[in-house]
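Researcher: Please translate sequence to structure tokens.
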Amino acid sequence: MFKKIAILAAAVAAFAAPTLASAEEGPLLVRVRALNLHSANKDSTGLGLTVNNKTFPEIDFSYFITPNVAAELILTYPQKHTVYSNGTEIGSLKHLPPTLTLQYHFLPTGTVRPYVGAGVNYTNFSGVHFAPAVETALHPGIKHNSWGLAWQAGMDIAIAKNTYLNLDVKKVDIQTTIYSSGAEAGKFKVNPTLASVGLGWRF
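Model: Translation complete:
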């Protein structure tokens, strides 16, 4: 799906008017995107832990420090995931993952503007619930905060004056420690790949 969107975006860019890229622009770029989260689901507890993949909206703000360098803050609301053990539902949790990256934009005045970025993610886990049988057997708990690195690559494609189609892919380090009766049982790494498409407006 994302590949098909990228091909379509390239076709749109090929027919975009050259004057679009030369329109006067401010330093702030605001984007609204649909984001698909695909979890790596790496578990060292031996319980076969996984969470579901999902698609949800996000908003981000990029401030251009120079024509080529921008700082991007990615925000969304807490996302609820179902937790499984070897394919059986055992509970749920929410996570809020704001991410800050520093980007380099290769063609800041072009119609097609590719970029790469790297930064840091902070994730807060909340609303953790386990099935009564799991609570009785394991007395489970998790660490509620996670810090990790984030990498991204994407492009903005001019489609109207100061308006852009955006394609973006990120890889983010998100993990938590799992506890049983207060003792550490292992690590669960979400480490998602985030693919998104959306619209941006430059101010």
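Researcher: Any highlights?
Model: The longest helix spans residues 2-15.
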